Each structure stands twice: as C-alpha cells, then as structure tokens.
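Today's session is about reading a structure prediction critically. Students often jump straight to the picture, but the first step is always the sequence itself: look for stretches that repeat, for charged clusters, for runs of hydrophobic residues. Only then move on to the predicted structure, which in these notes is written as discrete structure tokens rather than atom positions. Here is the chain we will use throughout the hour.
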Amino acid sequence: MDNRITTLFNIQYPIIQAGMIWASGWKLASAVSNAGGLGIIGAGSMYPEILREHLIKCKQATDKPFAVNVPMLYPDVDKLLEIIIQEGVKIVFTSAGNPKTWTGYLKKNGITVVHVVSSLKFALKSEEAGVDAVVAEGFEAGGHNGRDETTTLTLIPAVKEKLSIPLIAAGGIATGRAMLAVMILGADGVQVGSRFVASNEASSHQLFKEQVVKAVEGDTQLTLKELAPVRLLKNKFYQDVQQAYQDCATSEDLKILLGRARAKRGMFEGDLIEGELEIGQVSALIHKIMPAAAIVQELVEEFELAKKEVANL
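Below is the predicted structure for this chain, in token form.
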C-alpha cells in the first residue's frame, strides 16, 4: 500500500489510529504501530510528566514510528511539546487550535506536523501554515467536532479539490470498505478512532468499551456547540444537557453542568450514567472488542477484498 502517507510516516499501511483522550496511551499506540499502522498517543488528557512516561514506554514497546496528538485548547501545551522534543518524537498531530501557533517551531525541531480540521477553510489555512499533511474529519466522528456538520462524504472531495499536501480522512471509518470509499474520494489514508476505542489495548474503561459495542444507530448525538461541539452516547448526562437546552440554559449554565473531568469520569473511570461518553456514529457498526493488531489486519483484508469487488462492477 505504498502512497504519500506511508512514505511520509514510513509505515506499512495508510492507517492512523486517532489520538483520543482517555483511550490512546502507549499500549494502544505501540500495538497499532507494531501492526503496520501509525499509533498515536493522545496527550490531551495527560499531565506533562504522564506524557513523558507514556513516550518512554512506547519507545520500549515498538521500534516503529508513532505520533503524539496535542489538542491546543488544553493547558500546558508548551510543556507537552518540550517533552515531545526531548523524547525524540518525530511526528505530531495538532488539533483544536490555530496551526500557525506551533507548526514552525515543531518543524524547526525536525518534526513532521499534521493538523486536524473539520472544513476546507481550515485545511487550506493549515497548508498555508506549513503542515506536512491534513486530517479532514467529518461530523460523524466522535469527540470534539466541527460546528458546520459537514459529513465525511462531502468534506473529503471538497478538500482534495483544493489541497496539494497529503490528505487523511476521518469520521465514520471503522471498516476496510469505508477506508476504500474515502480513498476513492481522494484521501491518501485514514484516521480511525472509535474502532480502536473498542480494542483490548485502549486505556478506556471496560464498561465504556462494552457500551460502544452495544450502541446502535441513533445512539450518538452532536451537542454542546456553544462550548465545543462534541458527539456523545445518549446517557443520563446527555439527557441532562438536552433538558438544560429546553430550560434555555446559557453557555455559562452549560459550563457549570459540564463541570470538570466529566470525560475522564465517563470514558476512563466507567461512569456510564453521569460521565461524558465520546464516540462516533460508526459505533453502531462495532460489534466486538478486539486486539488492535487484529483490527488493523481486518481493515486491510476488507480493503483488499472491496477493491476486487469494485473492480468487478
């Protein structure tokens, strides 16, 4: 599967595991990298020294390339990036912020930079900022998302039409068939999040993983646009948010309801009632918890089979 993404990251398959808070620590990242994809450690939920610990363990667990995702809306970004440089990380995915802020600094330190966007406008701004590739994420995706609700099916060809650097598709991709579909639309590779939440190596709580597997169509919803749009499983906390909207809650009211560490409570500690359960629409297509390497292999095998079927149409 040699193409611009496999060459850029020096990996076997153009499959990138998303850097998800409370789910993608060193165990998941190293497992995906060892299986031929690009594993990513999600630094958004980590204090600087916790990140350093994960980087050291990941380097011990794999000799393959891996990356770190740094959401720029979190505090201590400068400290996280300092540790990333000190520990010799070669690939950084930035998100939730202006790519101009850190891209030049990272590239001066020999780091390949990828920025995550939800629109053509920000994809072009990222290219202008000098990033090496862009992840374009449709609103089907779990976690924090774009306000415009542009679907992956629409976003990828729109970005491909204008972008010259490598393009990675994200949002609603959990199968080899979906991988083939977005690559036909112009993507050079895929970023997969929700499917890897339901993996043995994900650091998310077992109860959350099981809830993802139980999810059916319509069990997730994009909400909290006034703060930062996020796709959630519908539990009591989600219903409380909807009630707040009916009661004409202000942004400040919503912040109070959200409180602190709500995502940790749900995804990491397993509180399925009061926790924030971030996951994509594609959870409805995830039916079992598997080892990360088996997920990568399943994606590749289904991709190759789908290619043959398409050729026969």
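Discussion point for the tutorial: Residues 292-311 form the longest helix (20 residues).
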